[in-house]
Amino acid sequence: MNVIVIPARISEPLQEVHLDTKNLDAYENLVDGMIEAIDLYHPEASFYINEEGKLRRMPFNERATALWWAHNSAARDQDWIVGPAVLHGPVGQDGESTSVPEELAALLLHTRTFRIETATAPDGPFDPQAGRYDDWFIAYLHGLRLSDPLSPHQRFRVLPAQ
């Protein structure tokens, strides 16, 4: 199974890692402790984070938090991620983790230029926004600002620029 490790330090690059789904120790080593799962949507995915990260005063993980808030609006401005985060796919029917969705892996690891689209209604169409970004994290931060509760934009997505 392929996962993406997002270190808390922005200066450290993302890492694509292949893990055995049955090896709990491998997950715990990546997050430096016991794991806790949190969900993302559109596309469906999950993070494993350190269950005691806040108690241990691990550093704030801005990149993982931005992804979580973008892909799970219920978490936005309610909670945050600390320490390293392991991004993987949704939990399968057998209860085991799956690989990170290909579209998300390609966006985070292989895309060089990004764009944002926003929607003003929960089920409405997406409209392109002006601007191109050289960093996925900056694109996500801008999308989060555009979809602020005081903004007419209710949803956003980050896509490869064409």
UniProtKB/TrEMBL annotation:
InterPro entries in UniProt = DUF3846
Q: Which residues form the DUF3846 domain?
A: 2-108
Organism for this UniProt entry: Kineosporia babensis
The record's section on Pfam families has: DUF3846
State the taxonomy lineage.
Bacteria, Bacillati, Actinomycetota, Actinomycetes, Kineosporiales
* Domain of life of the source: Bacteria
Protein name per the record: DUF3846 domain-containing protein
